[in-house]
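seq as requested:
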Amino acid sequence: MLDQIKRDLSQLSDPNRAKKLSGFFKTGKGQYGEGDVFLGIPVPEQRRVAKKYIDLSLNNLQELLNSKIHEHRFTALVILISKYRKAEKSGKEEIFSFYLKNTENINNWDLVDLSAPRIVGDYLVNKDRSILYELAKSNSLWKRRISILSTFVFIDNNDFEDALNISELLLHDKHDLIHKAVGWALREIGKRDQNAEERFLAKYCLQMPRTMLRYAIEKFDEKKRKLYLTKK
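struct tokens:
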């Protein structure tokens, strides 16, 4: 089954699209996606393939996650999310642990954004969330992004505490992908409770990277956006 899913994906490869994706996901030397290899398969096609292999074992998914080919890892995560949704309590715990053991393979922003809220965030809804703070303090860009993206599930439930705490931890992060993710989280909080977001901004807006601030205030009215931007 593992060889078959690889063949199915290989048959969908598009070299021209792969070249564009390699540039878009910054795979050049010294860039955040260095070494990532693309086949050039559209996401809907990857999801279609994943649907055929929902019964793939964790061992086989591990093989896909170990691959340098981006679409192998993406498709593996689509399958893993489906397995998580259908699993009982013990199965969810196993998949959560499996995910955390594979954070080094969840190593581009689309892979994190696809999976972190749906597995890590969902699993931690009614549990201790200290693991997110460990991830937020990691040297790994992708672990830090997992930490903040996982809080989006809590935000959806009007539970902002961890998202705000982790945003504070990541306030001085040097990477643009973290600036965007934190700003995005703050924006989502503001859509539900603008006062909660503005209390955070009142304390930290002068320290925030410009990109983070712009994302955070994206849904504010024009007058208020200008007011925050002129503070910088």
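Residues 82 and 153 are 17 Å apart (CA to CA).
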